[in-house]
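Quick one: structure tokens for this chain, please?
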Amino acid sequence: MGHSSIIITARFSPDETLVVTASGDGTAKLWDAETGEALRTMAGLVGAVINAEFSPDGTRILTMSLETASVWDLQGRELATLTSDSASLFTYVSWSPDGRYILACYRDGSAMLWDSISWDALKALGTEFDTLEELVSRWSP
């Protein structure tokens, strides 16, 4: 079954066999790219899901609404939920090129780099770095 509201984003997996969609209905869905069959539904985010993307190795999915960001496995199990110390809304999330980190940006102008294995918050923008570029260059491969 498809989404019950508008699809906001859709992305292919790195091997182009799967598609993930993010929707205004508060879910992300995993699809078989060849058959169009819905394989999994990722639910539980607050509000419209405005971003969904595969990890660079294609084994995990990062989703984001304004209030929550979560990482899922391909079976639709939630592995982690990212938060903000400032309780600010999310504006952007993305994997590092090697999939080791997740960068989360917030409406209050802050950003946090997360370890995608331990789920530890590693560094907040502004504590040691003056710009987002400094933060990303320090932690990204």
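The radius of gyration is 15 Å.
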